[in-house]
Specification:
Radius of gyration: 22 Å
Shape: flat
Structural class: alpha+beta
Largest sheet: 5 strands, mixed
Helix content: 10-25%
């Protein structure tokens, strides 16, 4: 004859999967906050244009910024930077553009995720304007240039002379 499980054991067996689900659900927001605080994972920060204007331009130094683009899982996009690199003075705002083309004959929505390397540069690379701040909706076959305005804080360590700004474009359509 089968013996019934004690009530306490049943509660534990029920609570464990619920707690595991809750942990998994909360992990992404915790991870994003952790990355924002520490600058890990190459996530870039935001800065207002007013704040960027208060930085002192370091005209004695040039930093090479390279621009890279990729499309996640061969999405229906053509996506690339208008220029592959530029030389910039820390403290001075610059604007570049990325080109995106929806190759579908229906509306498509995208979200771009930025990344900066080397990792120690992430806390010094700030964007004042970026297409990555919000989802982008494209009409069928629409193409457009999307601006990115950024500034590198002059406190960037002297041994960093090249920064790579990379975007991965994700499709948000179902």
């Amino acid at each position: 004859m089968a013996q019934a499980l004690p009530r306490r054991q049943v509660l534990k067996l029920f609570a464990i999967p619920v707690l595991m689900f809750g942990f998994g659900y909360l992990l992404v927001p915790f991870y994003n906050v952790f990355c924002e605080i520490t600058g890990l994972n190459g996530k870039t920060g935001r800065m207002s244009a007013t704040e960027a204007d208060t930085l002192q331009t370091d005209t004695s130094r040039l930093v090479k910024v390279q621009f890279v683009a990729s499309v996640n899982q061969n999405g229906p996009w053509e996506f690339h930077p208008d220029q592959t690199s530029m030389m910039v003075h820390p403290g001075k705002p610059y604007t570049t553009r990325y080109y995106a083309h929806n190759r579908l004959d229906k509306v498509a929505v995208s979200q771009s995720i930025p990344s900066v390397v080397p990792i120690q540069a992430t806390q010094y690379f700030k964007k004042t304007e970026c297409f990555c701040f919000v989802e982008q909706q494209f009409k069928p076959l629409e193409a457009r240039e999307m601006p990115v305005t950024f500034v590198i804080n002059p406190a960037l360590p002297q041994d960093v002379d090249t920064i790579v700004l990379s975007y991965t474009l994700f499709s948000k359509n179902s």
